[in-house]
Specification:
By secondary structure, the protein is of the alpha/beta class. Helices cover about 40% and strands about 30% of the residues. It has helices at about 1-25, 60-80, 100-105, 160-185, and strands at about 35, 50, 55-60, 85-90, 110-120, 125-135, 145-155.
Length: about 190
């Protein structure tokens, strides 16, 4: 009985290490952030406030998406000096209910988070998520810039917990969104 349990634990440990090795090898080939920009996009808009619309989420745990969004807005406001914006403000209403004439005069950002996956095995878990930011310039109905961010994470159950790793992934996603936003809005 002890020997079969020991064999099971050894197999779990070996499969965990093998899975980690495969993930590390594939990391170089993993998904990367993609940025699409229209030719007439103007970096660093001259606007006191940049508005952010709460993100649309599909099958994403609410605590994860809330953490990402709140961290993103906080990080942008902490780093606003790198842009021409004085602050980043959240549009609390649904965009359909916002005065469209006013909105057409604003630079604003929308976002989505989707495809959140927790793939757990006996000894390890893989986390994946995809996100997109869209930047709308003053007077334009279509986004002038779009940033696609896929992220993956992997952890061994002996070294961490799902709650900790979920928070780490949320922080990584918010950070990557902030970096891409600051690049787009940096002072000229």
């Amino acid at each position: 009985m002890v020997t079969s349990r020991l064999r099971f634990l050894v197999k779990c440990r070996l499969s965990s290490h093998l899975a980690l090795l495969v993930v590390l090898l594939l990391t170089g080939c993993g998904p990367a952030t993609k940025v699409s920009v229209t030719p007439d996009f103007k970096k660093g808009p001259e606007q006191e406030a940049v508005y952010i619309v709460p993100f649309v989420t599909t099958l994403v745990p609410e605590n994860f998406s809330d953490t990402v969004f709140n961290s993103y807005v906080d990080d942008l406001n902490d780093n606003h000096a790198q842009t021409n914006a004085t602050w980043f403000s959240i549009i609390k209403e649904d965009l359909k209910n916002v005065n469209q004439q006013w909105l057409a005069k604003q630079f604003y950002i929308t976002g989505e988070i989707w495809s959140y996956i927790e793939n757990s095995g006996c000894c390890s878990t893989e986390l994946r998520v995809k996100a997109r930011l869209q930047f709308y310039e003053v007077g334009k109905k279509e986004p002038s810039m779009e940033v696609y961010i896929p992220l993956e994470s992997f952890f061994d159950h002996d070294r961490s917990t799902l709650a900790v790793e979920r928070d780490r992934l949320a922080a990584r996603l918010a950070h990557e969104m902030t970096v891409q936003t600051l690049k787009a809005l940096q002072k000229r």
